[in-house]
Amino acid sequence: MRKFRTLLGATLAGACALAVVPGTASAAPAAPQQAAAAIDDTTGTFYPLAPARLLDTRSGVGAPAGAIGATKKVDLQVAGRGGVPAAGVGAVVLNVTITGPTSSSFVTAYPAGEARPNASSINFPKGWLGSNNVTVKLGAGGKVSVYNHAGSTHVVVDVVGFYAADNTMVDRNGGEYQAYIPQRMFDTRYDGTGKMPAGSYIDYAIDFGPENPNVRSLVINLTAVSPAKAGFLTAWSGAGSMPGASTVNYGAGKVVPNLAFVQTRPCYEDWCSEIWGAPMFRVYTSQSAHFVTDLVGMMDDGTLEYGLRFKPISPTRIADSRIGQGYQGILGPGSVRKVATPSALLTDTTDVLALNMTAVAPTSNTVITVWPFGYENFPKPGTSNLNPAAGQTVSGAVLTPIGPASATPPFAFNTHNLSGNVHMIADVVGTFYYPEPVSATAAATLKAGKTAPVAGKASRASTGS
After folding, report:
1. pLDDT confidence of residue 6
2. What is the rounded distance in angstroms from the CA atom of residue 371 to the CA atom of residue 358?
3. Theoretical Cys-Cys bridge with 86: which of 80, 250, 313, 356, CB 3.0 to 4.6 Å?
4. Which of 139, 157, 161 is nearest to 46 (CA)?
5. Do residues 216 and 48 lie in contact, with contact meaning Cβ atoms separated by under 8 Å?
């Protein structure tokens, strides 16, 4: 029986501070977070990293300078670089950015040494600039193969975290994933913040109540909305200088989302007085833009109940509406389709799928939303996973809980298409599981949730420029 926390474990509130920075943001040192107790078994636990660049084909970082040509690949050394240990790593979380492609194409990241799978990590048209969060199992020699299908394109890869492959990191306090039904937390269009100026940042804090000291990273869907010019968002803890890596790359006037794993630090600033010690993070925008933050989950310190561990797999396609696999035909306007998880990917404790989902050439601008099937108390959330424009084929990482065994079909997720017609593809890159079985009583408590989240007050603070 699969279980997950369908509501936030405590009342959740937000606060923000707006500041303009001259290119690079800095912050006062933060008070240290509470140390986590070491755990005996680290297999599948998560370790966040400050974003670090592993590959930039424009400048020759990680590979010889030069765009990746048609049907060519780069075998990228990951283990031992960017804070990733040289051994004991099962999978890494990457942000993959495409720039300057000469034709429509797709890039696939997969374990080096394995046959290239029938799956894509990021799809793009000619001339596109954009990014996608990609979780990929490490292959031979701690490497990842990065393949380009058509034309040529430059590729930039930043690492933001990794999962342990085995039990060799007992002294590193790995975290576990706490999954939630997606919920919109912040939206500068409606929360009084307004459109962010170019070269500015905003600080956010989210209150998890008693669990605040246990939060190490947030998993959010961060969306840039109607930027004035092409640019980027960078999300990080706010401690120290802004990292030289982007989280969302956007074009002028576009709506561009990306899943992000963002390290946090406790908020001990005046504007956090009502939620003292809550985990905070910072978002910088290079150009004037609105942005939206949807909470997907969080990575704890390994000490909370009902945490999930990650099992990486080679990318596996489970749904493709173009051929009637998983989805039965094209998704029309307002339609909801469910996809069942193949039994080969399930164990008795599997609870969440790590997916790469692709929307193929919608007939109009649309919004794609994913959430678990089979829970009557949890209708479609007011969030988005993909925001493709008409005719655009785009990919996005999705972490979604799956429904209960009692549902028909069991262990499934929903996909909603807002408008027009669109084909959808779903590739699984891993699963999250409970390291120990969860009792039926505990499952009932989790499904019922605790306190429903509420919107917090927003406040501005002049922190210098």
Report:
1. 38
2. 15
3. 80
4. 161
5. yes
